[in-house]
Amino acid sequence: MYFKIKIFLFIYTILNAVNINASENDEHIICYFNSQAAYVRGYGKFDIERIDPTLCTHVVYMSAGIDRNGFVTSLDPDLDLPEGRDFYGQVNALKKDHPHLKTLLSIDVDTIIARNRTQWLIGSSIRFLGDYGFDGLNLNWGESTSDSFFEYLTRLKVNYDAYGLLLYTSVNSKNLVGYDVATFCRNFHIVGLKTFDLHGPWKNITGHHSPLHAANGEDAVDSTLEYFLKQGCPANKVVIGLSSFGRTYTLVDEDLYKVGAPSAGLGHSGMETEIPGFVSYYEHDYDLFVGRTWRVHFDEFAEVPYYVDTRRWVSIDSPESLAKKAQYALRKQIAGVLFWTLDTDDFRSGVLTYPLLRAVNEAISAGYTEVTTEEEHTTEEVTENPTTEIPTVTTEIPVPGELCTSEGFAPHPADCSKFILCMRNPLGQLVAYELQCPSVQALVQSVWDQGSSVCSLPQIDYCSAPTSLQKFANLIPVKNN
């Protein structure tokens, strides 16, 4: 049995395994999480201790509710409150060691409008936030709209300013049809654009759910942002939405698989989230490892990937595509990004936690670099092998020059259970990384098989002293920057 390396995602992770800290950036990185993920079974169980405050400038707790009298209340006292697991207290305790961090409590606008008791929202929300230590409120817009509530926002903002509280919102352009966008934006400190779920399996053709660009007037990240900016929403108040979940489809015909292919409807669900048509990044990432042979496509125009396996079709972002969106936010000089959500990223990865969020942080930390050459809009296909485990990154090491004359794998000069990955860093310099092959069920140490470029069980002696570098035909090439 071989332990093959999930090469293209693994290489990206290694190159971005650097020290980053959101507190050092001027841009907002607003991290949402669903508290109900605490009840997900198995790997997807998400507790407050899983939050990495160094990767966020703000953490938004979803969600609180409105009781029948119109007062803000906990939706899950056993989870939220001190007499239970005290998630409210735990999330706000993160600020003690991370003073840059701000915490917000989210409430669904649909609930507020349905209760129709906005007269109590100002006072009860200010008291509730103060009682539990939150720095502000996030209003999350769903399907409902209300003229009276739009007018009420001005009073809400004035009172929040008086108490030094933050007032944020997460919204999509459809929520504001017929309303003055500039006035709406004035009533919030930050306006988060939900630039995801722009396409989904509720339609009868496949499509990217969060494309950076789109043709023929289709919704996209860039067109949504441009709409808000042109309508008078100040750039320094706007953040674009980045997602860590995907939308899944079932193809009508597996031979018709490109964007816009006929879809029979909802696709497979994640094994833990169990929602048809939906998959978290950690579930999709695991699915790439085991039991399936995925074809990975990258749409150069939309600047996002999609994944195909027989009749299964998935639209989900990768670290690379989210980095591109973060770079776009920098180029547009907006306030930053929102990340939806922490609990659907791979927050427990054995190699590097939060690969998507880290890619966003790294792109923002690196700053925006002006592109001087026009990119050709083509579609590139890469085939990825299924795997079961990936090696552990140990460290960047100095090695003799003859071991890294080009990109690729090389045997370790001294330890059969390790090997060398030669990669170019963003400056174009060859760098050697020492990697450790995994143990099998914590009992048997796998060893490096140079001929097949995999970690293998040691029944056969694959570990002979290297005499020269070999070329590796099954290494997926990495584009040089």
CATH architecture of the largest domain: Alpha-Beta Barrel
Helix content: 10-25%
Spatial strand arrangement across the major sheet? 2-3-5-6-7-8-9-16
> Which class do the helix and strand fractions yield?
alpha/beta
Biggest β-sheet strands, sense, barrel: 8 strands, parallel, barrel
Radius of gyration: 24 Å
Structure summary, number of beta strands: 25
Please, how many domains? 2
Specify the CATH class of the largest domain: Alpha Beta
Instruction: Work out the strand percent.
Output: 25-35%
Label the overall shape.
Answer: globular
Can you describe this structure?
With 481 residues, the protein is α/β, with parallel strands linked by helices. It has two domains: 284 residues, TIM Barrel (Alpha-Beta Barrel), CATH 3.20.20; 91 residues, no CATH class. 23% of the residues lie in helices and 25% in strands. The chain is built from eleven helices and 25 strands. The strands form five sheets. Strands 2-3-5-6-7-8-9-16 form an eight-stranded parallel barrel, surrounded by six helices. Strand 19 and strand 20 form a beta hairpin. Helix 10 packs parallel to helix 11. The longest helix has 16 residues. It is globular and about 70 Å long. 39% of the residues are buried.
